[in-house]
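Need a sequence for this fold. Nothing fancy.
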């Protein structure tokens, strides 16, 4: 029997055991050689791996490339001329499938989303800087070479010279133009971000001659880059002032700043400004879904949202809020006229309905993800709320993508 040699197998196994971070080792013909965690009947998409190979084609060996979205991040490393490593994806905060789906549905098909979400669920939540530190550890383990965390983080933001259509000397000469007019126009958009007015933001950006409204016509790529950096900063600060946690606001900001090299025209600048405006607006809307006039209720709703995949009890909420079980129960009765357990069950069923219509997860997987005691428990509760069995609900609504709220 011939045993196939897998490059770096022992080092990658050791690294995964130590960090629990997901790893995919693949060759330049887009074949998976090794994958952690092992997920039954699921491997990295050949289309995705081909894209990764193309990205790494001209990259130096063991020079990491870091990528981030508002919901997760990953890294690519060329380990040798024939072998590549994908580290991740991982997330910095717990994500419901609905949040993950809304953030990534435009870039992935449903099968890819399902696989990515499964991987993220089985991986630890770490910050971007911690992830960069683990990349340094992996390179040290395999290559024996030391690189700094800052080197890794800067790989996300480096702007290759070929992205510019103008010279560096020209870029250095650009200055901000009509700053007062820009700020005045942006205040209107920032107001809509603060108040969750998605349709108004879309309307403003879809108006013809968008930059004429700002009394500003960017005359160069460099000026577009500067305008977007200022705009992204304002959006981030506005969201934080409205109460968005910096753990969510900053990764989103970093993601968009890393896209600055892709801006080569006024149209691309406008599209990216609209995109980041809508992203932060969605975050504010989502934040307010878990706020109320009662600080106790707000804390409880945020805890339930972040632990929707775990078993949640009144004791858990009482400990989180440093109050008695009786106090928690009294607050829920006053605000929702329902028990704590009924509220938690209802939130889990909403997530189950979304998973049924927007993912390929089986009912067994959904039951396990949402910490139901059994599949039958989920089925009975689901039919009581929606008047359909889970399978009937999926069959009826999946093609429309319009689940009952």
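Here you go.
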């Amino acid at each position: 029997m011939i045993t196939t040699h897998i490059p770096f197998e022992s080092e990658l196994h050791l690294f995964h055991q130590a960090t629990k971070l997901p790893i995919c080792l693949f060759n330049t013909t887009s074949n998976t050689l090794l994958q952690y965690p092992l997920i039954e009947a699921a491997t990295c998409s050949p289309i995705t791996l081909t894209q990764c190979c193309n990205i790494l084609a001209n990259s130096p060996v063991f020079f990491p490339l870091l990528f981030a979205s508002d919901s997760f991040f990953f890294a690519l490393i060329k380990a040798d001329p024939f072998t590549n490593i994908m580290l991740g994806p991982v997330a910095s905060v717990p994500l419901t499938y609905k949040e993950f789906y809304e953030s990534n549905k435009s870039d992935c098909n449903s099968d890819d989303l399902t696989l990515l979400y499964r991987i993220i669920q089985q991986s630890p939540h770490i910050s971007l800087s911690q992830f960069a530190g683990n990349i340094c550890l992996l390179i040290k383990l395999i290559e024996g070479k030391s690189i700094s965390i800052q080197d890794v983080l800067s790989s996300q933001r480096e702007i290759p010279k070929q992205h510019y259509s103008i010279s560096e000397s020209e870029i250095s000469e650009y200055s901000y133009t009509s700053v007062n007019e820009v700020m005045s126009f942006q205040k209107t958009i920032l107001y809509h971000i603060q108040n969750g007015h998605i349709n108004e933001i879309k309307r403003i950006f879809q108006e013809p001659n968008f930059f004429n409204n700002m009394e500003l016509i960017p005359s160069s790529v460099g000026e577009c880059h500067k305008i977007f950096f200022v705009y992204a900063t304002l959006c981030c600060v506005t969201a934080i002032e409205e109460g968005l946690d910096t753990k969510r606001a900053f990764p989103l900001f970093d993601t968009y700043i890393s896209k600055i090299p892709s801006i080569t025209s006024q149209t691309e600048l406008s599209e990216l400004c609209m995109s980041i405006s809508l992203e932060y607006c969605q975050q504010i809307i989502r934040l307010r879904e878990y706020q109320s006039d009662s600080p106790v209720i707000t804390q409880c709703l945020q805890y339930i949202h972040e632990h929707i995949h775990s078993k949640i009890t009144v004791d858990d909420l009482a400990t989180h809020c440093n109050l008695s079980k009786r106090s928690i129960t009294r607050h829920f009765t006053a605000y929702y006229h329902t028990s704590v357990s009924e509220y938690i069950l209802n939130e889990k069923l909403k997530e189950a309905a979304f998973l049924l219509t927007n993912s390929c997860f089986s009912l067994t997987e959904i039951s396990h993800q949402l910490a139901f005691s059994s599949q039958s428990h989920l089925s009975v509760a689901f039919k009581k709320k929606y008047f359909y069995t889970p399978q009937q609900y999926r069959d009826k609504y999946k093609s429309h993508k319009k689940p009952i709220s």
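For context: The two ends are 56 Å apart (CA to CA).
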